[in-house]
Specification:
Radius of gyration: 34 Å
Protein name: Zn(2)-C6 fungal-type domain-containing protein
Structural class: mainly alpha
InterPro entries: Carb_Metab_Trans_Reg (IPR050797), Zn2-C6_fun-type_DNA-bd_sf (IPR036864), Zn2Cys6_DnaBD (IPR001138)
Keywords: Nucleus
GO molecular function, one term: zinc ion binding
C-alpha cells in the first residue's frame, strides 16, 4: 500500500511538470523520478526536455466579464454600438447637401409642396443636432437622389442605400419611436425613394407606405387640434400626397392600406391654397382666396387630389357598369377644363415657368392615365357581355388619349418629366400597353397611324425610363 502511494506521488509530480513533447501533444507525461525520459519520449525515441516556457492562464470567467462590461457600457464594443451625434456632415459635405436640397425645392417641391423653403434651409444652416430633423433631411436627400437620376453626378457618392443605412443607424424604424409629423414626412419621402429605386414589388416599399399611412391617420385623429397652423397645413398636404400614391398603386393592381373611403367626408382635410408667407404667419379662408397662384403650388395639389377622388368614386360601386365608367371619364376630362391657366394643358404650348410646367404635366398625365384605366375597365366589361369586337367608341377614345399623351411628351423638356419622378413612367407604359394590345389582337384592324403612334410612344418611354439604361446627364 505504501509502495503504491509513492508510485502515484512520483507520477503526479511528473505529470504536473510535463515535458515539452507531452505538453505539445496534450498527453499525460508518465515517468518515475529515477528515469530521465518519460514513457512517450522513450517510445518515440526523442529527447525529453522541459525548456519551453509555459503559457500563463488568463483571468477566470474572462468571457463573462467582457459581456458584463458591454452591458455596463464600459467596453469599446459598447461605445461603437452607440449612434453618433446626428450631424448633417454624416450625410454628405455641406456643398452636396445644399445642392440636393436646392434641387428638391426647384424640381420636386412643385408636386410635393411639403416644406417652407426659407425655414427648412435655415434649419440646415443651423444644424441644431435634432435627430428628427436630421432624419428628415436624410429622407429628402434619398427622395431627390432617387428622382433626379440624371443629376446624380452632382450629388457625390450619396445613394438611396446610404440614406437608408443612416436612417437605420439612428433608429428610424424603431417601434418605440414616437409618431410625429417630421417622422411621418420622412417615412413618406423614404417610401417614394424606395419605390423609385425598387418598384412597388419591394417589401420595403409596402412597409414604408404603410408606416406613413398609419402615421398620418394617427396624427389627424390624435394630435391635429394641438398642432400649429403651419403643421396642420403640412399634414393636410401630406395626407393627399399619400392618398394619390395609394390610388396610383391601386390602379396598378397593388392595393395598399386604405387611407380613406370613397364617400368619406374630406372638406376639413383640404389644404388652404396659400403662399409661404401666409403659411408662416397664418391665414384664414378669406385671405387665402386672394392669394396669387404664382406663390403657391397647393392649387395644383388640390386638383390632383380631386382627379384621384374621381377615379376612387368610379370604383365605389357594387356592380360596375358602362354608364358609371363613362360618367367618370367625362368628369375627369371636365376637371382639367376648369383649372387655373397656369395649370391647364391647352395649345399653343408655350414653355412657361418650370415649376408650373412640372405641375401641368403631372396633372395631364394623371388624367390621361385615369381615363385609360377606366376605358380598359369598359373594354373588360364589353368582353364579359360577349361583345366579340371592342366597341368603336372605346377604340376612338383610346386613340384620343394616346394622341393627347404624345402631345405632352413631345412638347415638354425631358427634365420636366424627371421632376415628376419615376412614378410617371408606369402611367405612360399602361397607356401604351392598351394600344399595343389593340394592335396585337387586331380586332379593329391595324391602322398605320396607330402603329406610328405606338412607335413614338415607345421611343419616348425608352428615353424616360432611367431604370433600364444610364442616361446622359443634364445640369
Amino acid at each position: 500500500m505504501e509502495e503504491r502511494s509513492e508510485r502515484e506521488e512520483r507520477v503526479r509530480q511528473r505529470t504536473s511538470a510535463a515535458c515539452d513533447a507531452c505538453r505539445t501533444r496534450k498527453v499525460k507525461c508518465v515517468a518515475s523520478t529515477s528515469e530521465s525520459k518519460c514513457s512517450v519520449c522513450t517510445e518515440l525515441n526523442i529527447e525529453c526536455t522541459s525548456m519551453r516556457p509555459r503559457k500563463k492562464r488568463g483571468p477566470k470567467n474572462r468571457y463573462v466579464h467582457s459581456l458584463r462590461a458591454c452591458l455596463d457600457g464600459n467596453s469599446t464594443f459598447a461605445a461603437e454600438s452607440e449612434p453618433q451625434q446626428p450631424r448633417l456632415g454624416l450625410i454628405a459635405p455641406p456643398a452636396i447637401i445644399h445642392q440636393i436640397t436646392t434641387d428638391w425645392f426647384d424640381w420636386i417641391h412643385p408636386v410635393a409642396p411639403l416644406f417652407h423653403r426659407t425655414l427648412f434651409m435655415q434649419r440646415i444652416s443651423e444644424d441644431d443636432g435634432s435627430t428628427a430633423f436630421f432624419l428628415l433631411v436624410v429622407s429628402v436627400c434619398a427622395a431627390t437622389v432617387a428622382s433626379l437620376r440624371r443629376r446624380r453626378h452632382l450629388y457625390g457618392e450619396l445613394s438611396v442605400e446610404a440614406c437608408l443605412d443612416l436612417a437605420e443607424r439612428f433608429r428610424m424604424w424603431s417601434v418605440s419611436s414616437e409618431i410625429t409629423l417630421e417622422r411621418t414626412l420622412a417615412l413618406y419621402n423614404f417610401s417614394s425613394a424606395v419605390n423609385h429605386e425598387h418598384g412597388l414589388g419591394s417589401p420595403l416599399t409596402y412597409r414604408l407606405f404603410a408606416g406613413s399611412s398609419v402615421g398620418i391617420k394617427y396624427l389627424i385623429h390624435e394630435k391635429f387640434e394641438r398642432m400649429s397652423f403651419m403643421d396642420q397645413q403640412t399634414l393636410k398636404r401630406l395626407y393627399w400626397l399619400i392618398y394619390a400614391g395609394q390610388c396610383t398603386c391601386d390602379m396598378h393592381g397593388r392595393q395598399l392600406l386604405v387611407l380613406r373611403h370613397a364617400h368619406e367626408a374630406f372638406g376639413h382635410l383640404i389644404p388652404l391654397e396659400i403662399s409661404d408667407i401666409q403659411l408662416l404667419h397664418g391665414a384664414d379662408a378669406s385671405s387665402a382666396e386672394d392669394t396669387s397662384p404664382c406663390f403657391s403650388y397647393v392649387p395644383g395639389l388640390n386638383v390632383l387630389s380631386r382627379l384621384f377622388m374621381v377615379w376612387h368614386s368610379s370604383q365605389a360601386i357594387t356592380t360596375q357598369s358602362m354608364d358609371n365608367l363613362h360618367e367618370h371619364i367625362m368628369r375627369a376630362q371636365q376637371l382639367l377644363e376648369d383649372v387655373r391657366p397656369e395649370l391647364a394643358w391647352r395649345p399653343p404650348h408655350a414653355v412657361g415657368q418650370f415649376a408650373f410646367n412640372v405641375q401641368k404635366v403631372n396633372l395631364k398625365v394623371t388624367q390621361l392615365h385615369i381615363r385609360s384605366n377606366l376605358l380598359e375597365q369598359m373594354n373588360t366589361l364589353a368582353k364579359d357581355q360577349n361583345m366579340r369586337v371592342t366597341p368603336g367608341a372605346i377604340i376612338d377614345e383610346r386613340h384620343r388619349v394616346v394622341d393627347e399623351l404624345l402631345d405632352v411628351l413631345y412638347n415638354m423638356p425631358e427634365e420636366v418629366f424627371d421632376a415628376n419622378g419615376y412614378s410617371i413612367v408606369p402611367k405612360i407604359r399602361d397607356i401604351g400597353g392598351a394600344l399595343l394590345d389593340e394592335l396585337r389582337t387586331g380586332s379593329q384592324g391595324t391602322t398605320l397611324q396607330a402603329s406610328i403612334n405606338l412607335d413614338k410612344l415607345l421611343a419616348k418611354l425608352e428615353s424616360l425610363d432611367q431604370r433600364v439604361a444610364v442616361q446622359t446627364p443634364y445640369v
